[in-house]
TrEMBL record:
It comes from Rotaria magnacalcarata. Transmembrane segments: none annotated. This is EGF-like domain-containing protein. Residues 188-230 form the EGF-like domain. Disulfide bonds join C220-C229.
Amino acid sequence: IFIYYGINESEQCLCPPSYYGDRCQYQNQRVSLTLRFRNENIDKLAIFGIVITLVDSIGFIHSHEQLTYIPIHACNNKFNIYLLNRDRPKDVTKKYTVYIDAYDKINLAYLTSWTLPVTFLFMPVNHLRAQLITPERQDCHISCDTRYPEQHIKHKCTCSRDSLCVATVNNRSICLCSLAKRSPRCLISSICHKNPCMNDDGLCVPHDAQVSFFDFISVCQDGFSGSRCENKDVRIDILFSDVSTPQAILLHFITIQNYDATVLNPIPI
């Protein structure tokens, strides 16, 4: 975006993250990551916090991103993430790895990690794609005790007390917030601080910061639906009286809708 800046109205360009330079003429070296998740957890209220970091062979974190995965709402969604190399140009003598850490977003418990090595370092943009399965319970194939050195994190952590410090970069903490908090250090109450769901068992999940600070998704218990779990679902009870219960039942549910020929086109396009 071209702007005039300051009292002298000097010309300046606002660059997207993937470019830099006074005219955005240079391309940032980066990893373009596409993720899709599958869920082993049959719990309808499962919510996952995903922390993604680009780390080199000496353990330095070049960039990081976070996202919230809600299986019941985003089971087929693809997540596209850019991870920028901090060095320009990047040091091709080092090895680079993308770490993907999954946490239970409700209690902030660590679940599992995946690693994706970055290859073909001579290319300015490295494309990685993966489909990952979130486990039903903790799966520490990367050691839970050594994933992040505990003393190192505790010494430098600046996150709020009810959040989780997962790493540090440039003396700044990478914080995983609870559903009730937001901001880089989880010091600000989120829109879900006071659960707006009308059904007490429903979960309010705030949108990720890169999407919105003021919107949320409601995850409702069975039997309820709606943007705030305000609707009680229709329930059909089938009882067999004085008859033997069959081994198999075939049921047909038919929904009747009003048809308006002026609005709906009956011919497929």
